[in-house]
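On clarity, I found the account of how folds are encoded harder to follow than it need be. What matters is that the chain and its backbone geometry are given together, residue for residue. The format is easy to grasp once an entry is in front of the reader. For illustration, here is how one protein appears when written out as sequence plus structure tokens.
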Amino acid sequence: MMGIIQYGDDPVTEISLKTHSNSRELKSAVDKIVQKGGLSNVGKALSYINKQYFSDANGNRGGAPNVAVVLVDGWPTDKVEEASRLARESGINIFFVTIEGPDDNEKQNLVEANFVDKAVCRTNGFFSLPVASWFALRKTVQPLVKRVCDTDRLVCSKTCLNANDIAFVIDGSSSVGTGNFRTVLQFVANVTREFEISDTDTRVGAVQYTYEQRLEFAFGQYNHKAELLNAIKRINYWSGGTSTGAAITYAAEQLFSKSKPNKRKIMIVITDGRSYDDVREPALAVHGQGERSTPKESERQGGFCQIWSSQAGTVSSYLQT
């Protein structure tokens, strides 16, 4: 099913998803579309797509992937990052086709620098197609169709590449030792590098614990990857006992109580030994914030691992090395 939205100052539905049932009728309807003119408010168009276009009333089918191909002449006249993020989180796969993008002199006129990178999923250019001129647009058809039909890649909105709040809960007890604690921090840094760090993408917070707990940094305190990695590196080893259950509760209160509603909430607990307090009940309480969960348990050499996964709410992983 295919439809068309035209945007300028404001978006308008030219063809809804359920209007035409065959390609001949659709092509005839496309030929009759009259140009609107006006600005290039792409952000408004993306919000419109998210809130109104992909609806059951408009012909949306729940089992089929939702795909929006956004054609932009030059550059948008409004901001696209937040609108695009919300659309992706709603399950819409967004492709950007940019024709005759800004040259070096025109970039100073952009409302939002690097707008394409901010609008699409971070997958090495799969969701963006720059076109040098209108004459070259025809050559883009087959590459675009091939990507849209690659259903294995149309999962951007469902992956952890978009909007997350990730809390690292780090064991700083005496049994860890200074050398191993540095190894843990390197692990945390390596995981962090895999995500886009910003207020609208992934935010990272960290708690260190022994018998007590200490908030090392909160969500959104560092919104640039370089600053965040430096903050991880600066965490000082504490030393003491091991109260993992209390640390999970503390992290939930100090970090996730301030989490944004649209963020996926992930807690990663890293510990080297058995806790002196109960872990299961605090972990289940945090996990219980989700709507749907499946408990999984597996034994591993060198320790025991319990992982709870959730499609919504907080996902907690209890990792013992």
